């Protein structure tokens, strides 16, 4: 084998080992960011509502509902729900009496690997409860 051919064989081997090493030790691709979604469905003309939270990364064990308020007022804690869904009185969602309500949840969930996590959901806007609807 000539010197040139030996050099070429070593070069090809080194490149193959480098590529294999990169493939074996490169980090796994990043997964999509976890998210939790709040949905509110009014039942019975606003007297009750079904609230549901679902998370992409695990099973919801509980969630706290909050009414969003502008600065400098802190957000209002409204109610705690155990599990991922419940029917509640619409008045629990009426955080701005006579005005539009802005509701979001703080979700508590468990991943498939058993890790407990917390995540804020999207905001749902609407007019909830009987205070704004005298026909309830």
UniProtKB/TrEMBL annotation:
<keyword id="KW-0732">Signal</keyword>
<feature type="signal peptide">
    <location>
        <begin position="1"/>
        <end position="32"/>
    </location>
</feature>
<protein>
    <recommendedName>
        <fullName>Secreted protein</fullName>
    </recommendedName>
</protein>
């Amino acid at each position: 084998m000539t010197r040139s051919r030996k050099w070429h064989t070593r070069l090809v081997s080194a490149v193959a080992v480098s590529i294999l090493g990169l493939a074996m030790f490169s980090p796994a691709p990043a997964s999509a960011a976890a998210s939790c979604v709040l949905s509110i469905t009014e039942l019975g003309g606003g007297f009750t509502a079904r609230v549901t939270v679902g998370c992409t990364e695990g099973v919801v064990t509980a969630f706290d509902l909050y009414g969003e308020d502008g600065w400098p007022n802190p957000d209002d804690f409204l109610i705690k729900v155990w599990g991922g869904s419940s029917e509640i009185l619409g008045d629990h969602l009426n955080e701005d009496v006579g005005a539009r309500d802005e509701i979001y949840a703080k979700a508590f969930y468990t991943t498939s690997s058993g890790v407990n996590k917390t995540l804020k959901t999207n905001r749902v806007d609407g007019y909830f409860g009987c205070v704004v609807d005298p026909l309830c």
